[in-house]
Amino acid sequence: MKNDLEKRLVYLFSGEFAAVITFIFVYFFYRSAISIDTFTLNYVFVTLNFILLQGSLFWFIKWRRLKTKRLIFPKLYRTFIIFKKINFILLCATPIILLIEMYIMSSSFLSAIFLIMIIYGFAIIEYINYYHIQLTNYNNGRGKKASIAKEIRKYSKRQLDF
């Protein structure tokens, strides 16, 4: 049982990190092939990778806790509360940045909007998946609470008890 959980945690943290590395390669390939370079595109790309790295960090810390049986990062929940707020601000700022850049760049910017919207949508999905509902475990109109959300709630309640 412990071995299965350990394998799953390794799979999760390495998978999230591999996604970040893959997206970086694809992004730079795409940018050089099509020569689209906009601030909004760079912004949503960095936002997405920032969120994915949080998932990788979370699963890595959970794996280390399981492996060493020690509390590796005692204030983990506080860090992820801050990350959650930063993510929300970054995601809310994206449409504003997009509109400003569309106004400034006008027609030369239109070719990048599709890619920006795809990356932005993916960033929103990952944010929801990490901090609200596990979208992969969505059954019968009900979602399972996300692991990071459970961690935040569990340790926040402990702090209130003291």
From TrEMBL:
<keyword id="KW-1133">Transmembrane helix</keyword>
<keyword id="KW-0812">Transmembrane</keyword>
<feature type="transmembrane region" description="Helical">
    <location>
        <begin position="9"/>
        <end position="30"/>
    </location>
</feature>
<feature type="transmembrane region" description="Helical">
    <location>
        <begin position="109"/>
        <end position="128"/>
    </location>
</feature>
<protein>
    <recommendedName>
        <fullName>General stress protein</fullName>
    </recommendedName>
</protein>
<feature type="transmembrane region" description="Helical">
    <location>
        <begin position="82"/>
        <end position="103"/>
    </location>
</feature>
<keyword id="KW-0472">Membrane</keyword>
<feature type="transmembrane region" description="Helical">
    <location>
        <begin position="42"/>
        <end position="61"/>
    </location>
</feature>
